[in-house]
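Type II secretion system protein GspF domain-containing protein
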Amino acid sequence: MMGLAIACGMVAGFGLLLVLRGSVAAPVRLDDALALLDRRPTAAQAAAAGLDGLGERLQRRLRLPLTAKQQKLLLMQDRTVGDFFIEKLVWTLTGFFLPAMWGALQFLMGRPVGLTPLAVALAGALCGYFVADLRLRSGAEEEKRSAVDGIHTFFDLVVLERLANSSAAQATANAAAISDAPLFRRITAGLERARMEQVQPWPELRRVAAEWGVPELADFSDVMQLEEQGAGVADALRARVRELRDAHLSQQKARAQEASEAMTLWMTIPALLLGVALVAPALLTLMGS
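Predicted structure tokens:
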């Protein structure tokens, strides 16, 4: 029991340290501000680049597996392979050293240690290795939701460009270049590739829609391709954008309704407990009599 209390105190103290560290605002460094003005990497960016390089070397030398789905999720979240494996390393070391520190503390206090701390440390390291994978998957849904919200803004920008008498391809390129979000950068890269190959950009946009799981972008490509037949796409595009926005709003309302219904169960639990607390004395009296 004493060892468990010490371990809980260590975890609580570490959490308090993280809270205090996060509450202290770091002052702005003058050299970082000057680096931003000169378009040079700041000290934090240089350190992050160094950590990314360390993670990539770690992945190459140890031949750690990286699936195509994980690469896709990293691209969607604007993360590098090095950053992902550095996070894996941090969680693995954390899972290993917390039980190891508990075992070392027990040894310093003169208590028998045995192999239990080592086994727990190995299990913690194994679990910590997969924490980054779980975090990567959990952030994919949020990134997809942000991408869908951003794509509707992209549609509005394209409509404004078309109303300014820009061509369909030029309007799409101008709208995509207005943001530095990962999806917008991917669209810009696809449009630039199509321009260099001197082909229509719409198949490339359909490919982006399949990669990111955004079917609205494929519908947008179908509408914009009508310009090849000489059709005026501004009115058709506005009508389709309105339909996509209404469908997106209906989907969001359905999700909000599901979340509200899921919360209803937890709201009824206190009422049930209160009812049991009120009825229990009477039931105990009847059973005793």
